[in-house]
Amino acid sequence: MFNYSLVKSVNCFFPLIWDSNTSTQEHPIISQNFFGFLKFSTFLALLFLFLIQPQAKDEQIKLFSITTIQTYLKDNIFVGGDCRVRILYITFSNKNEIPPPFLFLYLRNPYSVGEHYDFNSCLNIISKCKVLIILKLWRKTIQDTIHSTQTFRKRTGILISETKYFLNKSKSKWISVGFSLERKYEVVIKLGGIENNQHVIFNEDQWISFLHNQGIMLSFVYSNKTGWQPMRENGFQIHFVYMGDARIIKISQDGGNEVFLAGETMSELSNLVNLVKYRCDMLKFQEFSKYYNILVSGVSSKSGDLMNNLYKIISPSKNPNSANICCMLELLNFYSDCIIEDVESFACNEFVNSCIGK
């Protein structure tokens, strides 16, 4: 903030070198006009310092031309994802009016719940007046980062429309198939366990790589050979672990995710390969990701309550046998904040493209 003590010090300083009651005869070299000019110049200098003083690190304001907005957003938001962006406009159509700020775009931290904005109103306004686009960035605080990281980790293993098959009698290990919330509803296969939230997630290519090594893993479990070395595949590693007399397969992925598979589990997994493949094919044929994107596109242009608009569009009572609507109801009931983020992100992209087009 501006230090007003500087102004006081200036006002205290000038009487020492110039007293208005003192005759100019006592100071023949110094004139009153000169000191008036000096005092005014000092005031301007202090005002200049006040105006150019840097903002707080978490409130840095930067100006961008409209042509650079889209590139900036892609580089810093949708790729980096480490800051929030708020775009405001100031109208200059009437200089006598106080320019009212209007919210154009607001991207929040991942998975945060908030208000849905009517972006069509923004487009109508920007087409009728001159605008100044201001991007105001807030870097995440340490607390926000920790909270977001914890929330993100909790959601890494979540599947929508998940079908689970147990791999042992104790039901402590399983394989499941579903749409990954983290991976934009891609069809994935998950190997999970009860202890310490064990799990690894494979996409289709990774699952094929895993199956190609199934014979090697079974050989390790049921043989007496030694000297087995870890194997690195596409997106995961296979470790050959000895726990007493038992031989265990450990599957690990970057980020610390891992799962341990014993002999019984590996054998049952081999028996379920065809079932898992058929279930994956069914989900791919369902094309939920495509359906979801169309739904997000449609609801982003509507004003009013976002959740109510979604319920009206999908109309569950009128479509009782739709697998995609069932998935949407699951999202609406348990992960509505993810839908809000996707709707706002889509609306933001559309808004930026409209600005550049104009």
**Number of helical regions:** 13
| CATH topological fold name of the largest domain | Secreted effector protein pipB2 fold
What would you call the shape?
flat
Counted beta strands: 12
Could you give the order of the helices and strands?
HHEHEEHEHEEEEHHEEEEHHHHHH
Rg from alpha-carbon coordinates: 32 Å
Domains (count)? 4
Keywords: Membrane, Transmembrane, Transmembrane helix
Transmembrane segments: 34-52
Structure description:
The protein has helices spanning 5-17, 32-52, 66-79, 119-126, 142-155, 204-212, 214-222, 263-271, 273-286, 288-299, 306-314, 323-334, 336-357; strands at residues 60-63, 83-88, 103-107, 134-139, 159-166, 173-180, 186-193, 199-202, 231-233, 236-243, 246-252, 258-261. By secondary structure, the chain is of the alpha+beta class. It folds into 4 domains: 5-52; 57-151, no CATH class; 165-276, Secreted effector protein pipB2 fold (2-Layer Sandwich); 285-357, no CATH class. Helix 7 runs antiparallel to helix 8. The longest helix has 22 residues, at 336-357. The two termini are 38 Å apart. Mean pLDDT is 67; it is low at 1-30 and 49-150. The chain crosses the membrane at residues 34-52. Keywords: Membrane, Transmembrane, Transmembrane helix.
Question: Layout of helices and strands, plus pairs?
Answer:
Elements: H1 5-17, H2 32-52, E1 60-63, H3 66-79, E2 83-88, E3 103-107, H4 119-126, E4 134-139, H5 142-155, E5 159-166, E6 173-180, E7 186-193, E8 199-202, H6 204-212, H7 214-222, E9 231-233, E10 236-243, E11 246-252, E12 258-261, H8 263-271, H9 273-286, H10 288-299, H11 306-314, H12 323-334, H13 336-357
Helix pairs in contact: 1-2, 3-13, 4-13, 7-8, 12-13
Transmembrane segments: 34-52
Keywords: Membrane, Transmembrane, Transmembrane helix
